[in-house]
Amino acid sequence: MRARIPVTVLGATGVVGQRFVARLATHPWFELAHLAASERSSGKSYSEACAWRMGGTAPYAGCKSRAVVECSPQAAFAPIVFSALDAGAARKIEPEFARAGALVFSNASAFRMEADVPLLVPEVNPEHLELLAVQRARRGWRGAIVCNPNCTTAILVSALAPLERAFGIEALLVASMQAVSGAGYPGVASLDALGNVVPFIRGEEPKVEEETVKLLGRVRGAAVEPAAIAVSAQCHRVAVVDGHSEAVSVRLRGAPSVAAVREVLEQWRAEPQERQLPSAPATPLVLHDAEDRPQPRLDVERDGGMSVHVGRVRACPVLGCKFFVLGHNLERGAAGASVLNAELALARGLVAL
Ligand code: NAP
After folding, report:
1. Closest Cα to residue 27, out of 348, 335, 352, 299?
2. Ligand 1 neighbours by CB, cut-off 6 Å
3. Residue at 352 is within a domain
4. Is the pTM of the predicted complex or chain greater than 0.90?
5. CATH number for the domain including 15?
6. Which of 201, 230, 273, 348 is the most buried (most CB within 10 A)?
7. pLDDT digits over 291-324, tens only?
């Protein structure tokens, strides 16, 4: 068996960073080598620098006394780097690691829409990893940056990919109901969140609209040609802790029946399942039959938060087909997504060791 590969977590003290620490503490391929955060935290022990906010203390117990280091390649280099940095910090720090030879798997929005950066969901567009060669040649880096999309988009495209492949999507309306953990910690003030709906999340709607068509697009030469889908997103913050829900209507080519749509969703399997990647759920899309499912409280933790749930597939009098989608914003939409991206890159032989 191959020795585990050392990995770094940038932003290890934050909401997403803690999810990385919990996932990587027991990962069969990766070994947590460096915990890095801002200068406020570096030099402190992990327990001093970070208030552990996840349920379960086992991964945290193993890291409590470890020193947090600064986010520089000199202090924290590893061949695989997971970034849970804010976008501003990511824009400066992630290229430093890529230049030094690391493959950086980023949650931040800083580089997602750059033409030579793969925006990746392994079940949706694994072929976009072709852009790594373009990125390295253009930027002169030994390493590279791979991004996962915004959490709402990651969950949405997971349900759209089989429909795009089987039928083709012409138009899409999505209204999200997003968990408060999507705003980091402390995030939304409790007086705004409790018993309330906030009908605005800064920057979110354009991200969903742009990232969706990049993810469903095709690599043409040195960039992605976006999918020709008209997309309109409306994003809302609701009083749910974990799990983004989305009400979706789509116009599909050929106006397939509800039964045909259900069959395509139910049978969907992709490269992560074929390769049996450690973080890949056996069933990437779980199709629910009960009229009141999926629900965040009942369904979102299944498969370590890595499966996406679809329910209420039915006819839409406006666009033809509508359904409800649920996924875990911090796992399928963030830490788990990056770890699965790294597993795919490693399985495809793209990590320089
Ligand atoms: P967070 O809880 O605020 O954590 C931010 C992390 O970045 C902390 O570890 C912080 O370290 C570190 N940091 C901040 N400024 C830094 C700097 N100048 N240099 C080095 N480290 C710095 O945020 P989060 O919710 O985990 O989000 C992290 C990233 O993931 C963001 O880009 C976010 O957009 C993205 N994302 C979040 C979600 C979600 O559902 N929450 C989903 C998808 C993507 P200190 O503790 O030392 O300050």
Report:
1. 335
2. 11-17, 37-38, 40-41, 71, 84-87, 89, 107-109, 151, 181-182, 184-185, 329-330, 333-334
3. no
4. yes
5. 3.40.50.720
6. 201
7. 999 999 999 999 999 999 999 999 999 999 999 9
